[in-house]
Each structure stands twice: as structure tokens, then as C-alpha cells.
Amino acid sequence: MRPVTGVRPGLISGLTWLLVCQLAGELVVRLLGLPVPGAVLGMVILLALLCWRRPPETASVLRAADALLRHLQLFFVPAGVGLITFLALLREEAVPLLVATLVSWFVALALVGGLVTLLGRGEPAR
Amino acid sequence: MSADRIVETWDWVQSSPAFGLLLTLIGYRIGRELQQRVARPWLKAVTQPVLVAMVVVGAVLLVFDIDYADYLVGASLIVFLLGPATVALAVPLYRQVHHLRRLAVPILVALPLAAAVSITLGLLLVRWLGGSEELALSMAPKAATTPVAIALAEQIGGIGPLAAALAVTIGVFGAVAGPGVLTLLRIRDRRARGLAIGAVSHGIGTARALADHPVEGAFAGLSMGLTALAISVLVPLLLLVL
């Protein structure tokens, strides 16, 4: 049996796998000049690896991913705080900003939700 | 203890990495506690930890007149984790991969279409309502995840940090209101709900979807990735005609 330490065993090796995929994604994006962020390509790389190796639910990479995703909102806080640097501009152009944001958000949301429901009909919806 | 020393210490505190890091964690913690304590569903939706944390941290920075750049010294440690967390979205998707093959066609039709509509409507509405051209151009890529929105806005003549702020706004709005609006529209299929939230509110919407239901979260993550790709391709093309 492993000795009990402060960090759950496997968490660090899981994080290592995530970083390997991210770095691989960043490298490919830069080398090929692709228009997506490296981390998004890293997500595709990890998905391909998972489908290929089919690791059990106890695998370190799955547990590290679940641990990070439980706090996904935390990682957006600093970018959100950046809003305060635009307060003056946001106030100045409040009307075009609010209307354009809300209308385009709503139309796209309804479009995807409606189309996928319509085109995917007949499938079990769980 | 002289007054000079207090001022010196305060200057050090503001720009020390521990400050931005701790402030962010405390704000997030307050958000989680608050969300657990409120009972009504609409209050639970509004008290998204990301939103509460933004308000708490933003208020502290404004009240104590602390530079956003100083705050970022510590907070950038948290920003860094966004990379591996994005990669981690492959895991919920992997658990739903059996749904994916059957939904390939609806996904490949709906997401590019929604991206095109979102870019066009955002840009034209700002122009029609008398907004500045910088705002219009920064508005175009807002549905893409933050780093993509920044890069695209700068490429077409918008303001990168403003595009980031708009992307965050739309993300937080989606986290708060997205699931409720979808329920009002009677869209109940978990896969369709997730895809819709990821397509309009990228990672922040995905975080909410993931907290609501694993299937919604998985499809929101997928949708976020594909939408980032679609918007990257469509923004330069649509700008030729708009």
C-alpha cells in the first residue's frame, strides 16, 4: 500500500498528462499556424488518447481532470475582474453594447438548442 | 513602526503574488458559500461563484485603488490553470463519446450557423444603434473562448482586452441565465442544452453546465471547442462582406 500523503496519489501524474497534451497542442498550433488556442487542440489530443487507450475510471488523468473541472469557474475570475478597466467605455456605449450582446446571444442559443433538438429527434433524449 | 514602513508594507502587499492569488480564492470561496446558502432557484442561478468572485475582487481593487496589473501578478497563477482545465474537458466528453457519432450531423450544421449569426448580429446591431466601430469589431468574435476572441478582435481592428471583457460578460450572462432561458424555450434534451450553452457562452457557460449535469457539461465543452474553431474561420470571411 502507498503511504498516505497530503496530495492524493496520482493527482500530480494526472496533471502531468494534462500539461503534456496542452503543450503538444500549443506546439502544433504554432508550427502549423492554426487559428485555435493550443489548449483546445490539447483537448482534442487528450480525447483521441482516451478513446485509444480506454483507461479505467481510477486512472490518474481522469481524476485530475475531474478535480480541476469541479472548480472551472475559479479560473475565469481574473479575466472577469478585467472588466473594471473598461467601466467608463461600457457606460458610454451601454445601449448598443447591451442590445447587440443580448440579442445575438439569445438568437444563437435558441438556434443551436432548437436545431439540435429537431435534427437529433428520434434519439433517446437523456 | 513608522508611517513610512506601513506605506512600504502596503505597497509590497499589493504587488506580491500571494495577494492576487489569495484575494481570488477568497472571492471564489465567498461565491461558493453564498450559492450553497441561498434557497430559491433564481438566486442560485445568479450567485454563480465566478460572478460573486468578480464582484468581490473588483470591489476590493476599486476601493483600495489597486492596479489591475498588480492584482494579476498573483492572479496569473490561476489564469494559467485555465490551460490544463480546458484540456481536461476531454474527460467528460470521452464519457459521452457514444452519443457523439449519432449527433455529428446536427452539430456540424447548428454550430457554424450559430457562429455566423452571432458574429453578424453582434456587429450589425452595434453599428445600427450608433456604437463605435471599435466596439462593433470587438463584439464580432465574443462568443469564442477568451484567448480566441482577443486574437481575432486584434486581427480585424478591434480592441483585444475589450473583446476579452465582452467574452467574459457573455460567458457570465450565459452561466446565470442560459439554463433558465433554455427551459423557457422548452429545450429539454441534455445534449442540445449543453451544445447551445457552449456555443454562446464558451468556458464560463460550460462551467455552469458541468455543475448542472455531466451530459450538459460534456456537450458544452465540445461546443465551446468547435465554436472557437468556427468563429476563427468565419470572422475574417464575414468581415469581407459586412
Describe this structure in words.
The complex is a heterodimer of chains A (126) and B (242). With 126 residues, chain A is mainly alpha-helical. Chain A folds into 2 domains: 1-70, no CATH class; 77-126. Chain A contains 6 helices and no strands. Chain A starts with 10 loop residues before the first helix and ends in a 7-residue tail after the last helix. Chain B has 242 residues and is mostly helical. The chains are: A mainly alpha (126), B mainly alpha (242). Chains A and B meet through helix 1, helix 2, helix 3, helix 4 and helix 6 of A and helix 2, helix 4, helix 5, helix 6 and helix 7 of B.
Looking at this protein, list some descriptive labels.
heterodimer; A: 126 residues; mainly alpha; extended; B: 242 residues; 2 domains; 13 helices
Gist?
The complex is a heterodimer of chains A (126) and B (242). Chain A has 126 residues and is mostly helical.
Task: Give the end-to-end Cα distance of chain A, rounded to a whole number of Å.
Answer: 40 Å
General shape of chain B? globular
| Mean pLDDT rating of chain B | 92
Write down the domain tally of chain A: 2
User: Which percent band covers the strand fraction of chain A?
Assistant: under 5%
Assembly state: heterodimer
Structural class of chain B: mainly alpha
Q: Level of helix content of chain A?
A: 55-70%
**Structural class, judged by helices and strands of chain A?**
mainly alpha
* Fraction of residues in β-strands of chain B: under 5%
Overall pLDDT of chain A: 87
Count of distinct strands of chain A: 0
**Count of DSSP E strands of chain B?**
0
Order of helices and strands of chain B: HHHHHHHHHHHHH
